[in-house]
Each structure stands twice: as C-alpha cells, then as structure tokens.
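We include the entry.

. . .
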Amino acid sequence: MPDTQISAIICTHNRDTYLGAAIDSLLAQDFPAEFEVVVVDNGSSDRTCEVVAQRADNPRLKYIFEPIIGLSVARNTGARVASGEILAYLDDDAVASDRWLQILYSAYKNNTQLAIAGGKVTLLWPQGIQQPRWLSPGLAGNLGAYDLGNSTVYIDQPGLTPRGLNYSIRRSFLEEIGGFDLHLGRVGKNLLSNEELQMTEFALQRGWQVAYLPEALVAHNVSPERLQRSWFLNRGWWQGISECYREQLTGKSGIGQLQRGSERFFRGLYKAFQYLSDPAESFDNLVYAYGQIGYLNAAIQGLLSISNQK
C-alpha cells in the first residue's frame, strides 16, 4: 500500500482469546484514507495464526511471524514491514474506538513537531467481576488505565507518557533514535517496561512533542489472572528492575542507586503500615516498596558487573 497514511500494528504473543476483537476494531475503523493493519505474531504457540487467517480476505491485513520473543523486538519488526509514516500500536487484548486512527492521524498531520501520541484508556472487567477494594487508582494504571482528562495535553513529564497499549509514533522520529530499545519492554512472562517513558525522554530532549489525545479512546480487557495481589507484586518488582535499567542506559548508574532504592523502599514500607485502615492505599505502597527490592537487586548486579570488568 504505497499510499498508506497510517499503519495500525498489533504485536501479539499467545493472546488468541482477545486478538480477534482487537483486529476487528481496527479493520472497522472510520478512516477515509488508506490504512493497513499489521499483526506481528511474536512466537505464539496458540491459535493466533488461525485467528488472523479467518480475516485474511481483508486486503488491509498483513501478518508476519517474529520468532525472537520480546515486545520491543516485535514493535521494531512491525515498524519495518509497515508502510505508513505514522505507526499506531494497539495491544492484542484491547479494542480501539471507531475513530481511533482518524484522531491520531489528524494530530500528526496538523503538528509536524509531534513525535508520540496516545489516548485515554478505560478498563473492561471480566464478566461478573468488579474492581477490588484493594486496587488503588494508581495500581489500576498497571492494568492500563490512563486518563488525563477530556482536553488535549502536551506531556512535559515522562511519567505521564501515553500507555503502550494505545500508542503511536512518527516513523521519522523512531528511525532517528534507532527504534525501540531492546533492553526494555516485555519479554515473555517478565514484565520489563519503561520503554515508552524512555521514548518520551528522548523526544523532549530533541525538541519533539508528546501528546495525550482524549478522543483517541481504547478499552483494555483485564484478564482474571491480573486481579491477584501476586500479579501486582510481580509487576512492581519488574517495574523496579525496569527503572534501574533505564537509569543505567542514561548514565545514572552507580552507588547512588543503592541509596535511592533503599530510601524509597523504607518510605513505601512505612506508608504501607501507616495506611493499614485503607486497603487500597496500603497495598499500593506495599507494591511500591516491593518494587524497590527489584530495583536494588538490579542495581547490585550492575555494580558487580562493572567490578568484574575491571
């Protein structure tokens, strides 16, 4: 499709239960110009190929198998095979609103300095299940929830960057920075993250803009296994490791990481006990403290690695 204006990309790994709805939400987009839907099958062993084959008669749909497991690997593969200048990434367990591509495309067309944009994310709970009392708004963000209000916001703090499940990027910017960093991003069952945060840092450092577009709405399915406290503790652990790696990649590694991580660990632990009467606030701080153990573990490994190289 040489005249493709925007490419929607789904990177998927063993998520056949939700994948069909994600693809269908893209193929049904209310977008008058040319667009394509690229499915990157990242080493799946379930019915992923069959789900895509059921829709293979749609000329907009492309399929590619990427055997090297890793979200950043899959995203770079999707960018390589896609035709559009604007790359819009949708998670395999999410559903895009019908004007998602149009909202994103218009934002880039009207602002040549826009490098990254994403929209509001609501949560789709499993049938018969409501949000647990112990789940704080902050931890709901780990499930993908993202809402900065009903007006466009230009991001100036990397921590507010759009969620990866509802994420778009200008190809020329992605090429400028050499693609998604393979040291960050989910790999199989490990929950490495922070690749979007790093992208926003790069964009702001280079004079690009990053935007939150509330009308670019996506709904994200909450799988039942993510409603266990253990999942959030594991997610916090990997968040800590991701933050440590991100600092190391930007030259902020060293003994100072041990001090920062220790201070944050004790602060989180203290607040977890301080708010015992509030289950959501207490558990939020416990997850934060647990994440600092992951951070410290990665920091110590980094220091030992440096020491062994000397």
In short: The first strand starts at residue 6 and ends at 12. Residues 229-309 form one domain. The chain has a mean pLDDT of 90. The longest helix spans residues 279-309.
